[in-house]
Write a structure and sequence with these properties.
Strand 16 and strand 17 form a beta hairpin. The strands form five sheets. A six-stranded mixed beta sheet has the order 12-15-18-11-20-19, with helices on one face. The protein has a five-stranded mixed beta barrel with strand order 1-5-6-8-7. A two-stranded antiparallel ribbon has the order 9-10. By secondary structure, the chain is an alpha+beta fold. The relative contact order is 0.12. The chain contains 13 helices and 20 strands.
Length: 543
């Protein structure tokens, strides 16, 4: 008799540690069984079954207090930082104090061991694991999140075994948490459409409102999101195998065991207290490093990786594998591509005030991709500068809102003097806290970066402003970002589609220029046409 769907999910989604411990126990009679590889293979095979991945709750869609501790969850994320490896007790013995019985236990995929550990080194096996600090994909647009959340078939209810500390609430305001478990509010960076709430009367929060004084305790911890104004869960991902195959800024969908043990917060508090009374030279970690590397689990949960799937893109409407491996999808869409392109060209021509050639350029820009590098030259980049943009009625902002509906990830950067002189675009190494402080140019591949030069104003760039403009020029010309390690710079390749909106010729290095004034008869796509409608002038430059 086949098990029911509920029994099937209970086995490996709700209780993955039971699967791990069962395979570990079975291996005691056969030390060469390779049980660790079998655990990973088991979960991979389960996820290969039809729609199995949709039954796994996502940390991107479901608030933390709805997720069951020690259950299988997934997280769509970017590797923002890589910490030093750590040691843990892979195998250890516990002793029953009443019967004196010793039981061999597995410490893998756990943060906290059971009580009664026998520290006899003869049976204790120390192992090593790597820790990645991961954040949601920066600039992911609302339609992407809603599409992923809408395809989820996970059923979650508020956890009864985990009560998050209201004093250490991290990434959602109270109004944000009044949402359907499968959806969270879209973080808005730059000009965006008004925020929408997705309510669900069946699943409202039962928690009381937190006093405003409790907000300060969460604000002291910087979650280190690359883009300002971002919200969502950050996570410490524990990696057990092949961590050398991952690189900084990789985008992944991680499947792992969620750990939000309150003991982790207690250990962090004990470290803070003890470090204030002992000799600092006796501690290998500074107080700042302890806070960054051991944050409260209610703010930064731990995710013990079982399997990670590299994401070549985060578009939920496309298959994750390459198009060559999806012949069915490719054959079904080829017949529609010509009509879709013609429709898109007509729409872009309308949006760009009648400039059909600029519309062609915009289509090429949106599909451009750095497919290889020859020496230092990135092949496939297509930076576009739309000059002659009207500044009345916020035309650049409206153009960006249109592009938001077409690309999975994007970021609007108004190049005002204040932004250039104050923003941190380039990530910088903090040696005191031993972490990489993120910058706005730490973006996932194929992110659309919209630079609004119409906000330029008279004034002087300071040292930070000059560095920021130089960094933007390096992204445009060489598709690289030079991370600041204080005593030296380290070059990291990137793949960012840069679109520049300007009144005149851009000050950034866009090399090929087409400048043809014309009288436009088209009206902009707006119900109340502004004063500049019907007399626009736009030209396009590419690099």
């Amino acid at each position: 008799m086949m098990p029911s769907t509920q029994d099937w999910t209970d086995t490996w989604i709700n209780c993955p540690l039971g699967v791990v411990e069962g395979m570990f126990a079975a291996s005691q009679n056969n030390p060469d069984s390779g049980w660790e590889a079998k655990v990973v293979e088991f979960f991979k095979e389960q996820l290969k079954q039809k729609d199995a991945h949709t039954w796994v709750p996502s940390m991107n869609d479901v608030p933390l207090h709805y997720l069951k501790p020690n259950s299988l969850v997934k997280f769509r994320c970017l590797i923002q930082d890589m910490f030093d490896p750590e040691f843990y007790m892979g195998v250890y013995e516990t002793v029953d104090l009443s019967t004196k019985t010793k039981i061999l236990r597995c410490g893998k995929y756990k943060d906290v061991t059971e009580c009664g550990v026998d520290f006899n080194p003869r049976n204790t096996v120390t192992a090593e694991r790597q820790t990645f600090y991961c954040v949601p994909i920066p600039g992911e647009n609302s339609w992407v999140k809603e599409s992923y959340a809408g395809s989820s078939q996970a059923r979650v209810v508020p956890s009864t075994s985990y009560v998050p500390s209201r004093q250490k609430r991290s990434y959602e305001e109270d109004d944000d948490m009044d949402t359907q478990p499968q959806k969270q509010r879209e973080p808005h960076a730059g000009p965006q459409s008004p925020t929408e709430h997705h309510g669900n009367g069946d699943c409202k929060r039962q928690e009381t409102e937190a006093p405003s004084s409790q907000t300060a305790s969460a604000s002291h911890l910087d979650l280190n999101f690359p883009l300002p104004g971002e919200k969502g869960p950050s996570c410490l991902v524990k990696v057990y195998e092949d961590w050398d195959s991952f690189k900084l800024n990789d985008t992944l969908e991680v499947y792992g065991i969620l750990s939000v043990s309150p003991a982790l917060s207690a250990l962090a508090d004990e470290k803070d207290a003890s470090s204030s009374i002992v000799d600092p030279t006796e501690y290998m970690e500074t107080v700042e490093e302890q806070r960054v590397h051991s944050p409260p689990a209610s703010l930064v949960p731990r995710l013990h990786m079982l399997y990670a799937r590299p994401l070549p893109h985060n578009n939920p409407l496309l298959p994750c594998a390459t198009l060559q491996d999806n012949s069915t999808f490719l054959s079904s869409t080829l017949c529609e591509m010509a009509s879709v392109r013609a429709e898109l060209l007509t729409y872009f021509t309308h949006v760009l005030l009648g400039d059909a050639l600029a519309a062609e350029y915009l289509i090429l820009h949106l599909i451009s991709n750095v497919y290889t590098r020859r020496d230092v030259l990135p092949l496939g980049k297509f930076t576009l500068n739309l000059s002659g943009c009207p500044t009345a009625s916020s035309y650049p902002e409206r153009l960006y809102q249109i592009l938001q509906q077409l690309v999975p990830s994007s970021y609007y950067l108004g190049m005002s003097l204040q932004n250039m002189n104050q923003m941190r675009l380039v990530p910088k190494k903090d040696y005191v806290a031993n972490r990489l402080v993120s910058g706005a140019l730490q973006l996932a591949r194929n992110t659309s970066l919209f630079l609004d030069e119409t906000q330029l104003e008279q004034g002087q760039l300071d040292t930070t402003g000059v560095r920021n403009v130089t960094a933007l020029g390096n992204v445009i010309s060489w598709q690289k970002v030079d991370y600041d390690f204080n005593y030296h710079q380290m070059e990291f390749p990137c793949n960012i589609n840069v679109l520049i909106a300007s009144e005149g010729r851009s000050l950034l290095p866009v090399r090929i220029n087409r400048d043809e004034p014309y009288n436009c008869k088209a009206k902009p796509p707006h119900p109340n046409p502004p004063a500049w409608a019907g007399r626009g002038k736009v030209s396009a430059s590419v690099s």
